[in-house]
Fold each of these.
Amino acid sequence: MQNTSYTNEKPMKIAILISGRGSNMEAILRHIAEGRLRGVTCVGVLSDRADAGGLAKAKEFGVPALFLDPGPKKTVLDPEKEAAYARQVQAWGADLVVLAGFMRVLKEPFLSVWGGRALNIHPSLLPKFPGLDVQRRAIEAGETQSGCTVHWVDRGVDTGAILGQRTVPIQPGDDEKALAARILVEEHVLYSDILGRLADGRIPLPGRPR
Ligand code: GRF
């Protein structure tokens, strides 16, 4: 484990991977820009979709933002494309990878380099409801609360060690959309909170990637 705490002068460099609107990414970039997330800088944003709204938003914050071809498959990257993702993040000199609505499962070409140094946010109280359609599934299961989880990325789907959670109530009459919106508000708080704790050493960062 590395105990360094990062400062604004020597910040923890994050690269963010997105697939869509990028509201979690935007919240992180806004917190950095407003000085509310000390010791963290974003060195670049990658998207597997050329039309991801988050790409333009990242550029508004002056952050390099690229679409990288994912290959023909829907849920995973092609192995050589995945290696290109890992290389781009390395080329930016990132310390940590932040998945923020990145809709593909990462495999060995990426995780052999970045495993243990990649975070994900998920809109359920893991270990309950990993995977997709989780707000609908939580409502259908009769849960009275849900929330969001930030966890390390491992080789499973939403199975890595949990770093933090925030909880919201599920109210009578909630549909998937209403619950997702309530959870998203908490996601925007949680991700920056965890990044701040990693940067100042309250949560230990594993050793540098190989
Ligand atoms: C969020 O709900 C996140 O938890 C999930 O995908 C959604 C991404 O939203 N993994 P956004 O692109 O950050 O707005």
Note: The helical segments are 23-33, 53-60, 79-91, 108-114, 134-140, 176-199.
Amino acid sequence: MYKKLIAIVPLIFVISLISSCGSPREQLVQQQLFTFGTLVDISIWTDKTEQAQQVIATISADFEQQHQHWHPTNSNSLLAQLNQQLQQGEVAQLDDSLFSLVQIATIFSKQSEGLFNPAIGLLVDLWHFDQLQQVSLDETNSDTLKPPSKEQIQALVNLHASMTQLELNPSLKQLRSRNPAIKLDFGAFAKGFAVEHAINTLRKAGFNNALINAGGDIKAIGSKGDRAWKIGIRNPFYQQQTDQPVIASMALKDNQSIMTSGDYERFFSYKGKQYHHIIDPRNGYPANGFHSVTIVHNDASLADAAATAIFIAGPEQWKKIAQQMGINKVLLITQTSELIISQQLKPLVSLADNKKLKTTVVNLE
Ligand code: AMP
Ligand code: MG
């Protein structure tokens, strides 16, 4: 079942013949894939259609390989093998991509005071969110999946899996763990990292006008002809039908990425209560501070990790964590229907007219 889900399915391949005044031969070359457990759209504005198709094929293959290599559990993935070695206290040799993931994740984890904690793979497994990709929406709303027991959760929290207990030797690219309870799961920033990598591939191939949207995790370079790449930020209350689908729209500047963490992305219901996939490492339960957190930053990996960390930090601590991670463009939707936007982001977005959301502007500098 899982294999079926990770296979690349080229769902759409569109070359729309839109011409802009100054450059009549430029077109939008677009492809949609299913990889990383989500739909990924690649759009390139170019007059080199064939080369664009080739680079899209390269990026598709890269995404698929990254998804397979970085899967925390699939027995033949590089990350699963690494996790096994770490658990046994062995010294593991890392390939270039795992080395970068570990090195960058360690920095982000430290900056977020361990709220972004890719070492808690055992806790993530305990909640069985991996199974959510395999059940239909109807099943997620029935009692098919159950939360783990208090005792099971506490037992894992007590083992304090943390990135600080990893010993990384940067010159040899070797890694060892001092805590057998560490299981690495890069789900909270792998997509951002992969999007950043794909944008570099595009630039190296000479494409400077493109947009990659990996299931709502987005990065843009250049523009779409004479217009900026424009995106919408989803309204987390939208399931209620009566609401608008988008709470804000934004014209992205060159090299800008926008990443969202939300409690509506992956969840199940049990006995009328919803349990989502972003875990507070301090207590082992889904974090309950916000409905959604959207971060804008040039570095897609940082924006992705920060969206997760700030989601967990909640209303009390988010400003401190944002500052420590070097983030100042933030849009938050609280559990109490409040929209909080930073003064640094506000001029870049147009907020939809939404009377249900009380809006507050906060200065982050
Ligand atoms: P995101 O949607 O980017 O916020 O990432 C959520 C995913 O990251 C989950 O599906 C888990 O695989 C993983 N995860 C959950 N909680 C954490 C956490 N506190 N730190 C790092 N990764 C986490
Ligand atoms: Mg994230």
Note: The chain has a mean pLDDT of 89.
